[in-house]
Design a protein that fits this description.
The chain is an alpha/beta fold.
Length: 406
């Protein structure tokens, strides 16, 4: 009989968002009238449509596939068409990062690459994750048989863990960082990221830097890429996404930057990390479709940038509405300034699942329990700005009515 991967027995029984979905389904079946007024501010799925520049580029590309002379099948390299990688490289240059096009791998999203990148590292690697953290970092590492250790993100450091917050005795081989952070909404300053880069260099670690929310950054001291930090090219991989930048959650497109100078220890001495990732992708990934890549290219045009900025500003307004409400209620929170998320303390000492059920049943508002992101989220809650202004204002009014009597 075939045997299962025993590492799967080490995972939590339910993935966070599957459990959320189950509770919502149970509630709506039992309360069909209340379900009609449900406001969802939990899963970070964008709610505004793709911008016109993107849609037109995608349509044009599909039209090309309907003509023999312009039809395209597999993309030769599997790393993305040159036109898109050049556009991404130019985008990086706009905010001061030198990222050559030939170091960019186009993917179907940051989540996939964040989990898959572990394939090229040894099974006995030690993986350092900040707590709380996006679940894929932990789950994919456990699936691969790796040891996960934690650096604590909490009130004392503004939910932005630093190297000194790691108290373990094992030296990390891999370090996952996310800025702006999901779920806490915190964003590292340039000085803080330099500390992480120096720490990785001193320990010969590799940073896997999740920049999925970089487009939300508005403060000048918060880097939009780790590659604007001195020394980062020697220790870091960067993973980014168009899901939140340009509404590609249903279209699926992201990219990963792997500097060619990065190396890993191998039986033969040292091996190029770039070559390993190229080999892995060539074996397990056939690339992103041509129409999606053309649509993605349009994001980086002047027209596309103008249109996507308008969408991002719309979500920023929702974040402001949430910040104002939490401030009025005297609730401690992080996020919102450089992030689509606000991360706040549950009232009256409630744990996050208890507060989730209260919000769902009494306010008909769905959020995300912080416990699903780690130990430091047990008494915290995440709300997302991906909704309409009307729904966001209504949800905040319901939150006030729910909490003011408590």
């Amino acid at each position: 009989m075939a045997k299962m991967n025993p590492n799967f027995t080490k995972l939590k029984k339910n993935y966070l968002f599957i459990e959320i979905s189950k509770r919502i389904t149970d509630f709506t079946k039992a309360n069909p009238d209340a379900a009609k007024n449900l406001i969802r501010m939990g899963i970070g799925d964008v709610t505004r449509p793709l911008v016109p520049a993107v849609v037109e580029a995608g349509k044009k590309a599909f039209d090309e596939l309907a003509v023999k002379e312009t039809f395209r099948g597999y993309e030769d390299s599997g790393r993305g068409y040159d036109f898109l990688r050049e556009a991404i490289s130019g985008y990086y240059k706009d905010f001061g990062a030198e990222v050559p096009a030939d170091e960019i791998f186009v993917s179907d999203g940051a989540k996939s690459d964040s989990g898959n990148i572990g394939d090229i590292f040894a099974d006995d690697s030690v993986v350092l994750v900040t707590d709380p953290a996006y679940p894929v970092y932990v789950d994919s590492s456990i699936m691969g048989g790796k040891t996960v250790v934690y650096a604590s993100s909490d009130e004392s450091n503004g939910f932005a863990a630093m190297p000194e917050n790691f108290k373990g005795s094992q030296t990390p081989d891999i370090i996952y960082l996310c800025s702006p952070n999901n779920p806490t909404g915190s964003a590292y300053t340039r000085e803080q990221l330099k500390s992480w880069v120096d720490y990785a260099a001193a320990n010969k670690s590799i940073i896997i830097y999740d920049a999925a929310y970089e487009a939300f950054i508005t403060e000048s001291d918060k880097p939009r890429s780790i590659f604007t930090v001195e020394g980062a090219r020697k220790v870091a991989i960067e993973i980014a996404s168009l899901s939140k930048t340009a509404g590609f959650t249903g279209t699926r497109c992201g990219y990963t930057v792997v500097p060619k100078e990065l190396t890993l220890e191998s039986p033969d001495g040292e091996t190029s990390l770039f070559d390993l990732w190229s080999r892995r992708q060539g074996s397990k990934f056939n690339g992103v479709s041509y129409p999606v890549q053309r649509a993605a290219e349009a994001v980086f045009t002047p027209e596309g940038q103008t249109q996507t900025r308008e969408t991002l500003d719309y979500y920023r307004k929702n974040a402001e509405i949430m910040q104002e409400t939490l401030t009025q209620l005297g609730i401690d929170f992080t996020g919102g300034n450089n992030s689509p998320y606000v991360w706040f303390k549950c009232p009256n000492g409630m744990d996050s699942w208890e507060f989730f059920d209260l919000m769902l049943s009494k306010a008909n508002v769905v959020g995300t329990p912080g416990a699903g992101f780690g130990q430091n989220g047990i008494n915290r809650f995440r709300l997302t700005s991906f909704n309409t202004h009307e729904n966001t204002r209504e949800a905040m009014e319901r939150l006030k009515k729910l909490l003011l009597p408590l």
